[in-house]
Amino acid sequence: MPRYMALIDSPAEYEEVGELREQVMAEYAAFEKEATAAGAIVDGNGLADTRSAVTIRSEGGRGRMRILSDGPFAETKEVLGGYFVLDCETQDEAIAWASRIPAAWRGAGELRLIVGG
User: Fold this and answer.
1) Predicted structure pTM score
2) Positive or negative CA dihedral for 115, 29, 16, 108?
């Protein structure tokens, strides 16, 4: 069965501890429970906040100088917050599940077919 990666882009303020984060986490828990019961989720995890991120770039190609910078490289109001691997018969089915991920309501997401593996 085809597998799809649903990348979750969420507003940066979701990283802040507080009432909004608690509400969003409850929405994710409800989605995960429903999608897992239906057999649609194979895997999924949230990511640590962007303060732990390091962007790695190379100047001059393989084996050349590494350039490290703290946090995500792009200036953006949305951050990659996590992912789900969805096990679905069709892309339409994967889109239906991905549209129920809370990020689709307030942020954005990307759905991509996993090749190989």
Assistant:
1) 0.76
2) positive
How many CA atoms are closer than 13 Å to the CA of 62, on its beta-carbon side?
0
In the block, residue with structure tokens 């897992």 = 36
CA dist., res. 20 & res. 3, Å (int): 31
Return the structure tokens found at 113: 């077919």
Residue 40: CA count within 13 A, CB half-sphere: 22
Hey, what are 23's tokens?
A: 């509400």
The pLDDT of residue 78 is above 80: no
Closest by Cα among 15, 19, 26, 34 to 81: 15
pLDDT tens digit sequence for 12-26: 777 777 888 888 889
Q: What is the mean pLDDT of the chain?
A: 82
pLDDT tens profile 28-47: 999 999 999 999 999 998 88
Q: Which residue has the tokens 């194979």?
A: 42
Does residue 66 sit in helix, strand or coil?
Answer: strand
